[in-house]
Amino acid sequence: MFDYKELKTYWWLFLVSGLISLFIGAALVFWPGKTLSVVGWIIGLWMLFFGVLRVVMALFGGKADGRWVVLIVGIVGIVLGIVVMKNPAETIGIVALIAAIFWIISGIVDVFRAVTDSEMLSRGWVIFGGLAAIGAGAILLLWPAATITVLAIIAGIFFIIDGIMQILASLEIKKA
């Protein structure tokens, strides 16, 4: 689907995104009791950054079918990220729903891309990451009354997995 040789120029974006995801994940796992505003703002920041990364992938990833889907996911991530970051205290009640929907959509897109793109680097890892996103989103949807501590820990685990996946992808893209 994507021309990974063209993405090679942007390999460092995946590395930075992965490191940020690892940092956010560690913060959420080790300090889950922080204020609701901080948790909401961190999740909003991640959505914004991940959305920007998806837009860059869609616009500069070479000629490929289905790039519009990645672009839409990126735009949704940017919009949701800005909304959450702008009003973290007011939106914390829906942060779980927003994160769950975004993770499920993003995971479905990743799994679909990996299944349909036989030339994709690290397809198994992309599928694993997509399934992790779908799983994290499903858990949040199935238990909406979960406390913010549980949300923070689930989100933290997801961010750590996602960060590792992005770092691995950056190294694969750099080698391409």
- What general form does the structure show? globular
Please describe the biggest sheet, giving its number of strands, its sense, and whether it closes into a barrel.
Answer: none
Structural class designation = mainly alpha
Strand content: under 5%
Termini separation: 15 Å
As residue ranges, the low-confidence spans are none
In total, how many domains does the architecture comprise? 1
- Which sequence of SSEs, written as H and E, runs from N to C? HHHHHHH
The beta-strand count equals 0
Rounded mean pLDDT score:
84
Radius of gyration computed on alpha carbons: 15 Å
Q: DSSP helix count?
A: 7
User: Helical percent range?
Assistant: over 70%
Written description of the protein model:
With 176 residues, this protein is an all-alpha fold. Helix content is 83%, strand content 0%. The chain is globular, with a radius of gyration of 15 Å. The protein starts with a helix and ends with a helix.
